[in-house]
Amino acid sequence: MRNRVYAHIPFPMLADNLQTVIDRGINPEIFFSGDTLDTLIPEEAGAIAESLGEAGLRCTFHAPFMDLNPGSVECLIREATLRRFDQVIDAAAILRPDVIVFHPGYDRWRYGESQDKWLGHSIASWRRVLERTETIGCIVAVENIFEDEPSTLRALLEAMDYPRFRHCFDVGHWNLFHTVGMEEWFAEVGRFVAETHIHDNRGTRDDHLPLGEGAIDFELFFSLMERYAPDAAWTIEAHCRAALDRALTNLGKYYR
User: Fold this and answer.
1) Count of domains forming the chain
2) 41 lies in a domain?
3) Cβ neighbours of 213 (radius 10 Å)
4) Can you give the pLDDT of all 256 residues of the chain as single tens digits?
5) Measured on CA atoms in the order 23, 233, 134, 91, is the torsion positive or negative?
6) 96 is a domain residue
7) Contact indicator for 237, 211 with CB cutoff of 8 Å
C-alpha cells in the first residue's frame, strides 16, 4: 500500500490558500491553535471539508498543545486541556480527519518522580477522547516531544490497549532528545506507529528542515517505517512553502 502523504498547515492558512492546496493535490494536516478553535465557524469548516472531499483529498489534524497536558497532576490544567480537546473533536466531527495527533505532555524533568500519577491521569483523559471520537472513527495518536526514550509512551500505549490509540513518531524530535537509537525506539513502540512527522535538523534546534538537509539518517528511518509501520500516514512538517516544495521533492526517492 502506498503511504498517504500529508502536509502541515494551520487552519487559517488553509482557509486562505484552499484552492492552491486543492490544485496541488495536497492532503493537509490541519493545525488548530486555541485561538483558532475559539473563533472557528462551523459553516466555514464544513465548506472546506466539502471542497477537500470533492477534490479526493483527505486530512489529518494536529491538536493544540501549548501549555496543555492531559496527564497533569493539576486538575485545572487537565480541565483546560480537555476543553481544548473537546473543541478539536468538534471540528473533527465536521472535517473527518484520518488521524488526530496530540502531545502527551510528559517530560522526565517534571514527572520523573511522579510518572505513575501522570500515567493514571493520562489514561483517564485519553479514554474520554476515545469515547468522544468513537463515531468519527479516527485514530488518536500521541507524538513524542521531549521523550528521550520510549518507555513512558510504551506504558501509556500498552495500558490503553485500544486499536485506535496509536503513536505518531516525530523523527525530528527524536533526533533532538534521544538517548536511544532509532532501531531501539522502533523495537519498543514501532508496532504502534500510525503516523510519522517528517522533518530534519542538525541535533541542536527544532529547525524543521526538509528531509535530507540535516543530520538524520533517513535511509534507516524509512527502512524501519517499512518494517514496523508500512501503512502509516506520512506528514511533512515544513514551516514555509519553499521548504515544503523541497521536502516533497526529497521525499520522492522513498515514496513507492
Assistant:
1) 1
2) yes
3) 16
4) 356 999 999 999 999 999 999 999 999 999 999 999 999 999 999 999 999 999 999 999 999 999 999 999 999 999 999 999 999 999 999 999 999 999 999 988 888 788 999 999 999 999 999 999 999 999 999 999 999 999 999 999 999 999 999 999 999 999 999 999 999 999 999 999 999 999 999 999 999 999 999 999 999 999 999 999 999 999 999 989 999 999 999 999 887 6
5) negative
6) yes
7) no
3-class SS shares of the chain: helix, strand, coil, % to 5: 50, 15, 35
Q: Which stretches does DSSP call E strand in the chain?
A: 5-10, 27-31, 60-62, 99-102, 139-143, 165-170, 193-198, 233-236
C-alpha cell read off for 2? 502506498
| In contact, 234 and 251? CB cutoff 8 Å | yes
Whichever domain contains 23, its CATH number is: 3.20.20.150
Range of the domain at 240: 5-251
Please give the backbone phi and psi of residue 170, each rounded to the nearest 5 degrees, phi first: -95, 105
256 lies in some domain? no
Q: Is the Cβ–Cβ distance between 214 and 185 less than 8 Å?
A: no
The dihedral formed by the CA atoms of 73, 77, 82 and 83, expressed in degrees to the nearest 10: 160
Distance CA 247, CA 47 (A): 29
**pTM of the predicted model as reported, rounded to 2 decimal places:** 0.97
